[in-house]
Design goal:
alpha+beta; 4 helices
């Protein structure tokens, strides 16, 4: 896997960016910025450290799918780490097999650092070769959307 990094400066407090990013006060803020990955993107679960989380959406045929993950760490307003370990196919969790093994255990880390009312969000993700181009297009758009929502 390769580690990719994306950064965005947002003119809002780390608390506001964190709450907007995770949909703490309103899940719709999470759904809006992650719609750059899938228009139906949402999550099911808790952001508490150690919790299981489903990152889900529906495909063009209306079938539910997504990622199965664990919140590896969560330090409010500073850091969130997500460890992916499976996929959701309909309501079935798939956590084994060759398709899973090539990326299972991959991390998606979010660091937030605030200076003088500007929060720098740094996203570091482990990806397989076949997703690099997609993420290099989608992540900058998603972070721009997060900036727009957080600065409201």
């Amino acid at each position: 896997m390769k580690k990719l990094q994306y950064k965005k400066d947002i003119h809002a407090s780390a608390e506001k960016v964190y709450n907007t990013m995770l949909g703490i006060e309103d899940i719709k803020t999470y759904e809006q910025w992650t719609s750059e990955f899938n228009p139906t993107s949402t999550y099911e679960g808790s952001w508490e450290k150690g919790s299981k989380m489903y990152f889900v959406g529906t495909d063009e045929n209306g079938k539910r799918g997504g990622m199965v993950a664990e919140i590896a760490d969560n330090v409010p307003f500073q850091f969130v780490s997500i460890r992916h370990y499976g996929i959701l196919d309909g309501d079935q969790e798939i956590t084994e097999g060759p398709d899973i093994e090539k990326w299972a255990g991959g991390l998606e880390n979010y660091s937030l650092e605030e200076h003088n009312g500007v929060t720098t969000v740094v996203v570091e993700i482990d990806v397989t070769e076949d997703y690099i181009e997609y993420f290099n297009t989608a992540w900058p758009k998603a972070l721009s959307k997060l900036k727009e929502l957080s600065e409201k």
